């Protein structure tokens, strides 16, 4: 059996994991990325094409990741006859403010406070979040007095958030329908261009994500996060049946308490930063890509593949 | 044989390590943390109880960690008939300024300079350290001119330190009575709420620890740190016989030279951030929790258990 | 067969890797570093000597690292009759601005912009880079208005760079003549003293490197970096035949695009921060030190040792 994906985002671990679990692997790669991906001995079939939409007709099991919506569009994915790992109707839930709010409210996960421009105070700091996952490049921080002018230049839907004086952590989960278990896989922190301020006089800089760093969160903070994970899974069962299948991530600001700033409704790029919690469940460290392949194996063994693909 | 601990701090690696080395595992968990810990397949016996003091009567080998003193108190631990891994009389040494000073002075490990309020300069920056390990939440930085007012609100014993213009690293050791060897296990950096300043205009923020990040220190800095570790072990042999047994950590500020800011007289939470140095001693990567279990195995094999428990 | 190196920089992973691949190991260590290195069970022969030049007559395979040029000097290394892993004439290329420029220009890797003092603007920020790898300790940032005075105190060759509002990442490669393959091994970020500014009011602080942190770069950024690696290898074939053999690193600033700030013409200290990309090529995680030993094994097996030593 073949596992297929697009060469981007988290495809390295998806392909490697599939290979380790005994699948053949197929990767759709754009011509300008060919040198790197063709150097790797873990890819059985490399399809070099400028048009990623070719994957919509793939006959293997397609593993979506954070670049799928950008490359293919929600509609094309939902209409595809391809066998997608996970619940492909869940993919859209991270892309719109109203869906994000609906999911988090139902799960009773505390959210960062959104404010109206009319409520803004001149000297307070705000975080302006642009709708949809864009690698953070368009989000910005600004004082209340700057907001009106700055927002007049924003073309996309946005939200003004009360700035949280804290750090941001991204919590990775795997929800297994076959084992009926939620696994907490790890935590990362983003490395963003604005982090340059740790070495220089302050300058407002873009929140563009450049990479991820593995974090060992204080163990006493994990049970609360795990409960949020459970509540999220529960809420999505109702909102988008059959609910979450496989990887997702909850994103939090922490200033002494956690406030959710969004989620990833698929494997999150932060899982590229290796973490050891998987060994608590699997006896050895397994990255999220391999965890997906393990779920496929378990499902195939029990003749339950249709429970983990849509 | 059973290894027991409290579900917090570094219990995940303690329990996992014990399991890997062939022990049964028992975990005391408060009801609100039950969901997370009960999802893990590495715990043989989960005792759900609001009262952690139940562990004081445990009949297994009790592995203390950074939450023990907070949950149980020094006195109850020292009086307990339970078999504690390590020297339980060493646990108190990190909790009082005078004990910390005594240990570091005897070991001749350079310390960060403490100053008296009367010596303080208006425009210099100071770090106010609150006595005892509190996860950093009450420490604060302030300019000399602000100190008097700020300190008038502090209820606990504190110390004013000259602020060090540098970074903070936490060095993890394991002292093996069975192998008669000191092992340098790794180095971490804390992630604290105040780190938020890497992305925003400066604001004094709490030093509350949120997590830990693994650091590969410049190799040329390790021999000096190892020597400090050796000296610390040597000094504790006299100060609190039989001295250090098992894990401890030395905490340093570095601005071109190391100055000690304290230590952990038990497994340090920073060992939750995985590091590879253990493989130098063990051929494979072993976390501190597993290292503890290995010491127990070595001791049991040689009939020397009483040398590693108190 | 014996693998020899100097006890510093990345010798831990070099020695461990050699041991894992079946070599004997020999380490030259200065007396004040003896305690640490003699505690490690992976060193077969520890030569304690205040004079590192003893390694120049070593009869094993000498693996150079970032401390070799500082301890031995380029000339002594090039004249040595010892069998050095890699192209020892490549070692000098990182040490002079004109060689760095020549290599990067030929490879068409975009560089950070160097400016003349006369072009400097009063209120712009600049980065002054001191020639040669010095662990970053003499580099500094300054506003244009401060430059003339600051530079008057600099004794060594320097370069004024336009300050880049971004973060710095270090990309580790292994170039295998035996497998005819370039492997992308991982990415790190430096921990420098100036990073202290993430928790305090800004103060210009030294860029002295204290350690390294592993970074999982966004996967979509890797193909471009891999292409730079290929181009670099290609250009060095002409500039310093037989070109790059084994490990090297390219150093970049990133503010939305990559600009090269230099390179390491040997194993880079940042490879001490463990990364998982090696498992893409080798099925298991292998540090750069072990990768070197693997190349030696491959070469020995095929009777091609002379292709990987000089």
TrEMBL record, chains A, B, C:
GO terms for molecular function: ATP binding; ligase activity, forming carbon-nitrogen bonds; magnesium ion binding. Residues 3-113 form the IMP biosynthesis enzyme PurP N-terminal domain. One of its GO terms (biological process) is IMP biosynthetic process. InterPro entries: ATP_grasp_subdomain_1, IMP_biosynth_PurP, IMP_biosynth_PurP_C, IMP_biosynth_PurP_N, PreATP-grasp_dom_sf. The keyword Protease does not apply. It comes from the Archaea. Keywords: ATP-binding, Ligase, Magnesium, Manganese, Metal-binding, Nucleotide-binding, Purine biosynthesis. SUPFAM superfamilies: Glutathione synthetase ATP-binding domain-like, PreATP-grasp domain. Residues 157-310 form the IMP biosynthesis enzyme PurP C-terminal domain. Its cofactor is Mn(2+); Mg(2+). PANTHER family: 5-FORMAMINOIMIDAZOLE-4-CARBOXAMIDE-1-(BETA)-D-RIBOFURANOSYL 5'-MONOPHOSPHATE SYNTHETASE, 5-FORMAMINOIMIDAZOLE-4-CARBOXAMIDE-1-(BETA)-D-RIBOFURANOSYL 5'-MONOPHOSPHATE SYNTHETASE-RELATED. This is 5-formaminoimidazole-4-carboxamide-1-(Beta)-D-ribofuranosyl 5'-monophosphate synthetase.
């Amino acid at each position: 059996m073949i596992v297929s994906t697009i060469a981007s985002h988290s495809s390295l671990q998806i392909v490697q994991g599939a290979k380790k679990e005994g699948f053949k692997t197929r990767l759709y790669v754009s011509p300008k990325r060919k040198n790197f991906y063709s150097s790797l001995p873990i890819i059985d079939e490399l399809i070099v094409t400028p048009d990623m939409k070719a994957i919509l007709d793939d006959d293997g099991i397609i593993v979506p990741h954070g670049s799928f919506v950008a490359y293919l569009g929600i509609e094309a994915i939902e209409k595809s006859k391809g066998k997608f790992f996970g619940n492909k109707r869940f993919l859209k839930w991270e892309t719109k403010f109203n869906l994000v709010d609906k999911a988090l409210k139902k799960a009773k996960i505390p959210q960062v406070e959104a404010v109206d421009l009319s409520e803004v105070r001149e000297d307070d700091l705000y975080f302006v979040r642009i709708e949809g996952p864009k690698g953070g490049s368009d989000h910005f921080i600004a004082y209340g007095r700057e907001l009106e002018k700055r927002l007049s230049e924003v073309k996309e839907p946005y939200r003004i958030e009360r700035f949280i004086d804290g750090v941001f952590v991204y919590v990775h989960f795997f929800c297994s329908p076959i084992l009926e278990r939620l696994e907490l896989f790890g935590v990362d922190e983003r490395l963003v261009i604005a982090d340059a301020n740790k070495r220089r006089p302050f300058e407002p800089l873009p929140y563009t994500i450049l990479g991820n760093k593995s974090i060992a969160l204080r163990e006493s903070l994990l049970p609360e996060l795990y409960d949020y994970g459970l509540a999220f899974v529960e809420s999505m069962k109702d909102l988008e049946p059959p609910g979450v299948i496989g990887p997702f991530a909850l994103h939090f600001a922490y200033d002494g308490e956690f406030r959710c700033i969004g989620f990833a409704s698929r494997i999150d790029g932060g899982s590229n930063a290796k973490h050891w919690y998987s060994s608590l469940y699997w006896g050895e460290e397994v990255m999220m890509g391999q965890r997906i392949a393990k779920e496929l194996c378990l499902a195939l063994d029990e003749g339950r593949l249709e429970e983990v693909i849509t």
